[in-house]
């Protein structure tokens, strides 16, 4: 099944709407490990992405490119910059071709590797990279939006639990790794929360599954 | 925690508007006005120094744009690195034809955006070097200095590399001086109360009314220990002991000391700390030259202080004493 510009645009819109609810929740999670602004930063970044009008993009590559540029202009934070660099990678990889939902696992895998090279984190450091890695594995072979969404959400919840009692080895939390045991990494949590928004059955969900 | 603000979303830009109105030597430039540069523009034939970082630490980073210091500064949102567009503009605006040193603190977002900016500018032929501030001894052991965060001691790298650039040194020499200054600087902080980000509902961390945190970072990053508040002399003693236990190889018995307020600690308390710190360094046989006491690098309304030691040799001492002038620091 083809992944379309329209689906990307609807996803961004829904994520932007959901940040009203998620902003302070993610800030609170970040306050335990960082400086308490992950939610506000993502709310600003996703609002900027929605304002970049991905629905007007000429192609999937153009849509991802618009989102990447909007994200890069909206923040210089580590997490925001990494998210934007992943979208830039998706834009470059999808240039000049149609994209199927079954391609998504390979596309995210390349983006994940690019994020590792840019940010210096490794798998197992308890970062957003571990979340993306779990998604890459889980959605391999899935061919439609519905099953990609469902398996990604399951994998992300499982990864949160799996990493909760491990120490953070990257970002500000690496300086007090022992104290990070028992706490969710805010970037990983943001990934899981936003995936649920994208995959949920709420208003507009049919756009993602048709 | 009350704030004199209009809208969290306009915090940075309204503050920068006021800063540049109050100090006409500074002007806003670049993408979305998130670069501050010297009003007179870049001097042709001088090596440029571009810095940058998250907002919320004034006078750092923006306030050190001036003669004999840095030339441009890319400004992010509160406690967030500057975006790539601002980094690109800060480097371009600092280019006087002899290359640009990127000099900033060791933080992930800052690094990624300055690195990407450098990659974009490669084609324009602007030669760039990078030196990262890594002076916070609470954020990594002596064997992992490259992992340490940059905090208040960064101003010594600004001052000495800035003096070298002003005197006409080439890019390699300015870079060498900045790296030498970073290697000669050690800082330790202590937090008494947190700050709150303008967009956040709660303070950036929780600390009980009678607690302090030794080794705290300038974004409230947890430090070495938390315990009951104790007298200023006891706190000063521990900070001095930790700094003396982490002497750089090139320590020659003379240093500048910076007792820095984190934002909401009064100068009176900083001088109480300095009095004890000075006496302890005297006892340890360390000669203190050019002491600095005041708010040089803050974390908005965070309560607390940091102590930096900048170990001097004749070269660094001369550069530290060279004339310089910015909105918040003047050396005649």
TrEMBL record, chain A:
InterPro entries: DhaL_dom, DhaL_dom_sf, Dihydroxyacetone_Kinase. GO terms for cellular component: cytosol. Keywords: Kinase, Transferase. One of its GO terms (molecular function) is glycerone kinase activity. PROSITE patterns: DHAL. Residues 6-200 form the DhaL domain. SMART domains: Dak2. Pfam families: Dak2. GO terms for biological process: glycerol catabolic process. This is Dihydroxyacetone kinase, C-terminal domain.
UniProtKB/TrEMBL annotation, chain B:
This is Dihydroxyacetone kinase, N-terminal domain. SUPFAM superfamilies: DAK1/DegV-like. GO terms for molecular function: glycerone kinase activity. The keyword Transferase applies. One of its GO terms (cellular component) is cytosol. It comes from the Bacteria. The lineage of its organism: Bacteria, Pseudomonadati, Pseudomonadota, Alphaproteobacteria, Hyphomicrobiales. PANTHER family: TRIOKINASE/FMN CYCLASE, TRIOKINASE_FMN CYCLASE. Residues 7-329 form the DhaK domain. Keywords: Kinase, Transferase. It comes from Xaviernesmea oryzae. The keyword Zinc does not apply. One of its GO terms (biological process) is glycerol catabolic process.
């Amino acid at each position: 099944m083809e992944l379309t510009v329209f689906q990307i645009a609807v996803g961004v819109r829904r994520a932007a709407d959901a940040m009203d609810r998620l902003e302070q929740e993610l800030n609170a999670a970040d306050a335990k490990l960082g400086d308490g602004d992950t939610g506000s930063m993502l709310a600003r970044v996703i609002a900027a992405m929605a304002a970049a009008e991905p629905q007007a993009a000429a192609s999937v590559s153009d849509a991802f490119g618009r989102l990447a540029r909007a994200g890069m202009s909206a923040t210089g934070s580590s997490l925001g910059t990494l998210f934007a660099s992943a979208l830039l990678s998706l834009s470059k990889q999808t240039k000049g071709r149609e994209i199927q939902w079954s391609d998504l696992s390979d596309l995210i895998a390349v983006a994940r590797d690019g994020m590792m090279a840019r940010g210096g984190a490794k798998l197992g450091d308890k970062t957003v990279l571990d979340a993306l890695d779990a998604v890459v594995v889980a959605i391999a072979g899935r061919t439609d939006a519905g099953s990609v969404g469902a398996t990604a959400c399951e994998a992300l919840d499982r990864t949160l639990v799996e990493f909760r009692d491990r120490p953070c080895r990257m970002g500000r939390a690496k300086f007090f790794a022992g104290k990070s045991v028992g706490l969710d990494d805010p970037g990983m949590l943001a990934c899981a929360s936003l995936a649920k928004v994208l995959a949920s059955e709420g208003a507009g969900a049919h756009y993602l599954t048709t | 925690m009350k704030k004199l603000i209009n809208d969290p979303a306009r915090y940075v830009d309204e503050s920068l508007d006021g800063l540049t109105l109050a100090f006409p030597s500074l002007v806003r430039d670049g993408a979305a006005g998130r670069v501050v540069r010297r009003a007179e523009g870049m001097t042709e034939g001088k090596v440029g120094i571009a810095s940058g970082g998250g907002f919320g630490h004034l006078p750092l980073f923006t306030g050190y744009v001036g003669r004999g210091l840095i030339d441009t500064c890319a400004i992010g949102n509160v406690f967030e690195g500057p975006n790539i567009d601002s980094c690109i503009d800060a480097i371009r605006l600092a280019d006087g034809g002899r290359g640009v040193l990127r000099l900033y603190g060791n933080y992930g977002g800052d690094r990624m955006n300055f690195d990407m900016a450098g990659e974009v500018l490669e084609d324009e032929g602007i030669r760039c070097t990078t030196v990262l501030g890594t002076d916070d001894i609470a954020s990594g052991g002596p064997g992992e200095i490259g992992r340490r965060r940059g905090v208040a001691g960064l101003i010594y790298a600004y001052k000495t590399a800035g003096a070298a650039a002003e005197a006409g040194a080439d890019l390699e020499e300015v870079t060498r001086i900045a790296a030498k200054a970073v290697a000669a600087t050690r800082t330790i902080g202590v937090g008494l109360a947190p700050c709150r980000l303008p967009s956040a509902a709660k303070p950036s961390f929780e600390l009980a009314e009678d607690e302090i945190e030794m080794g705290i970072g300038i974004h409230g990053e947890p430090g070495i220990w938390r315990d009951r508040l104790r007298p200023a002399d006891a706190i000063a003693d521990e900070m001095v002991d930790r700094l003396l236990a982490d002497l750089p190889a090139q320590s020659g018995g003379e240093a500048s000391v910076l007792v820095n307020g984190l934002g909401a600690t009064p100068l009176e308390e900083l001088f109480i700390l300095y009095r004890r710190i000075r006496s302890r360094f005297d006892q340890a046989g360390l000669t203190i030259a050019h002491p600095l006491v005041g708010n040089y690098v803050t974390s908005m309304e965070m309560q607390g202080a940091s102590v930096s030691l900048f170990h001097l040799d004749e070269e660094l001492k001369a550069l530290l004493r060279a004339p310089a002038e910015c909105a918040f620091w003047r050396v005649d």
